[in-house]
Structures are given as structure tokens and as C-alpha cells.
Amino acid sequence: MKISSLELNNFMLFDRLSLRWSPKINIISGENSTGKTTLIKAMYAALKGVSEGRLDRMTKEEIEGGLVKKLQGVFRPDDDKIGRLASRGSGGSRASLSLCIGAEDSVSVGFSSRQDRHADVSVNIGVSEDGMAPYFPVYIPPKEMISATEHFQSLYETYHIDFEEMYYDLTKLLDRPLKKGGNTEQQNSVIESFGRIINGSIVQRDKKFYLKMKGKGEFEMGLVSEGYRKLATIIYLISSGSLNENSILFWDEPETNMNPMMIKPIAEAVAKLAEMGVQVFITTHDYFVQQSFNLLSAYPPAGSAPADIKFISLYKEDGQLCFEEGRTVSELNHNSIMEEFDNLYDREQELIYGN
């Protein structure tokens, strides 16, 4: 079950937006304050809000409460007033978020700017045999959490900590033990792809994580670079079963604290993750991230079909947020990453050769 479309109306920065997604990989770019992170947080909150309990045993009021609570935790509006997520136009406005999953399932949330802790909710999901939603959303934020897993969960549950709930959710996933039985051949292939980048494997003991590097021994995760910690997070999530064929991965700015030379193998490993069945959403400001995925889509190996990647560019025009989409970067007329890359090249030429 993959997200097929998203519609937002008067939601945060967006007056109106309707997007269709690739079931494999989606790359979202744009300048600051164009709503990249808002998109993936909205989808994550809607999915996570209905995937944390047994839908077959929950009342409509309980489902509504779970969705509202997740939106509050993910976006953290002042005083938990969900109405603050509606567009701040003059007078009252009504916001809505609608998500289609697969061909038939859907989740919709609507509320006015004057509402605090109530929303109109419509959930149409065919549950699995265990009564749960048949998909598993995972959010990886810009800041790594694998080095803080040991204590963060209990602190978050006891104190008011100024972290969005995705961080807490991620530490709960990292707290899971390894699943019984061996990995599939496809899972091992993805784990090996990420493992080659960091030249090692991940060990967990008593909620503490270590990077076991070939020929060098084990290193506490806090002593490892933050870029390696992010990749270690993905490796463990696959090993514990949290990233599987039913998972939807939201990865916010993977380039943060990542050396550019690591981006190409990361893109190739993410492509393998998508082939394993994981739907991937990535937000980025980075030329290397965007172009590495573009090369996978535009120049597939001989005899292979192009990778199923969709590029979304968000931009502002006449004060409105707009978007473009394409199967390659060259299909985007508005691309803030390439525009700044070209501007930098032009400035360099002027400095070298003069006017």
C-alpha cells in the first residue's frame, strides 16, 4: 500500500495543492519556506495517526482523537490548538488534508482556524488480519537520534521537551529488538549497500548502539560522525523489520552533515530500498542529492528500465505557492538548486575573467 496522492486546502502555507506520487521514490526540492517539510510531516502525521492502534476496535471518536493528537505532536502548534495549522488569512478559514493510499484507502482531516482539539475525520482503510493499518510510516528527521535512544524516550515521556514527535517515534523504533529469523536476500543486499558506505555493521546492546568497523573494532555511536549515524539508523531499521515492503519512509534533508562523496552510493542504496518495496519521500536543498537521483532516472543501465522517481519543485509565484513535477530534473522549469548552482558558476567566471 503506497501513498498515491495528497490534497491540501488552506493548510499552513498552502492555499490549494494536489499532488500525485510515485510508488517508489519522490524527491521534493524548493527554497526555504516553500513547504517541503510541511508536505512530508502532513502525510506522516495522517498515516501515523491511524497506524498506532487497532482500527477494528476503535470508535470514530478514538480515531479522531488519535489523528488530532498526532498532528499536534508533529506540528506542535501553540497550546496544541490544531486550528493554528489553518492558513492565516483574514477571518476564519477551513483547512483540510486528504491522503489516498493505493486505489481505495483514504484518510481525510478537516478543521477550522477556530477549532482547538477537534477535527472532522474520515478514515477508509482496509485493515490487516491483526486489525492494524496495512502500512508502516517511518520519519527520519535532519538531526540523528540513534546516539540519544538510550535516554530520550523516557525524557520525552516525563518532561516537556521542545522536540517534534517524529524524534520520539524514531527512538521507539530504534528501541525495538532485532526480528526473529534471518533477513531476506533483498534486505541483506540493501543492508550491505549502506554498510559499505560506513565500512561496518551496527551492534545494539542495552539500548546503546555501536558501529563495528572492519579491522578497527567497535565505536560508541556518539563517537561516530553524524552522517554515519543516519545511515546506521537505516541499517538498524531494516534489520529490526521497521523498514519493510509495507513501509513508507520520509527522510528530511539527508544531506545534513553528510559529505558529498557519500551521496551517490546513498542514492543507489535508496533505490535498492525502493525495489525492496519501501516508498520513499526525500526533501532536499542539495545539488548532489537531486542530481544523483536524476542520473538514476535519466540514465538507467543498458537494458534496464528508468528508475521510478518523481521530482517535485516547490516555488512561489505572485505570492502563491506553486509546484512542478517531472521524471527528470530537466523537466523542471523552476529549480532553485540548479538556479543557484548556475548563479555560483556565473559569479566565479566573473571573478576569474572579469566583465
From TrEMBL:
Keywords: ATP-binding, Nucleotide-binding
GO biological process: double-strand break repair
ATP-binding found in the keyword field: yes
Gene3D superfamilies: P-loop containing nucleotide triphosphate hydrolases
Pfam families per record: AAA_21 (PF13304), AAA_23 (PF13476)
Domain ATPase AAA-type core: 190-288
Domain called Rad50/SbcC-type AAA: residue spans: 5-54
InterPro entries: ATPase_AAA_core, Bact_Antivir_Def_Nuclease, P-loop_NTPase, Rad50/SbcC_AAA
Any one GO molecular function term: ATP binding
UniProt name for this protein: ATP-binding protein
Organism: Cloacibacillus porcorum
